[in-house]
Amino acid sequence: MSDILFIRHAETDMAGTFCGHSDPDLNARGHEQTAELIGRLRPENIGTVYTSDLRRAQTTAEAIASAFGIECTPRRALREISFGEWEGLTWKEIEQHDEAYARRWMADHPLLSAPEGEALCDFEQRVLEEVAFLSTKAAEQDIAVVTHAGVLRTVLVSLHKCSEEDAWRLTKPYCAIVRHVVAASSQLQFVEARS
């Protein structure tokens, strides 16, 4: 039996926007959060780190890998959902730009994507396929996976029947950790979140 620690990346200057596939690096607070995260991870027996290939996740993951003296492998499939034309915008900006579509998106979500964005069903399929791959790697050793809130929510909701509301609450803090126990019957445990 081994563990996958799914970890949300640390903060960027795009906090409060639809960041998606945008590629900001960590801000000063994000670097502080990463140092705190490494302290919380010290008791873990992490053998390798996998990460989204976006900078905010990679910077967080590379700091963990360096602290543990282990490898860090980027995986494109661990990216956040793409928000298309909404990338980098706040909800207020989206409503000002196209109020009718914003209202329609709220009413039809999750069936309606952001304009030119990734469909939620495609995103979830991508994430679940990646989790299956990561589970084979975790059979060999405990691993850390630095990724995005949307990925963690998919794991919580799709694999462990967590409510949407609870999944949002648990994954909102930067550097939130969700422990996934890889065994014959997989278990999930929310470890901790700090803002």
UniProtKB/TrEMBL annotation:
Entry-linked InterPro entries: His_Pase_superF_clade-1 (IPR013078), His_PPase_superfam (IPR029033), PGM_Phosphatase (IPR050275)
Keywords on record: Hydrolase, Isomerase
Lineage top rank: taxon: Bacteria
Signal peptide: none
Keyword Cytoplasm: no
EC number: 3.1.3.73, 5.4.2.12
Keyword Coiled coil recorded: no
Molecular functions (GO terms): alpha-ribazole phosphatase activity; phosphoglycerate mutase activity
Residues forming the catalytic site: H9, E80
Annotated residues for binding of substrate: R56
A family per Pfam: His_Phos_1
Protein's UniProt name: Alpha-ribazole phosphatase/probable phosphoglycerate mutase
The organism of origin for this protein: Tunturiibacter gelidiferens
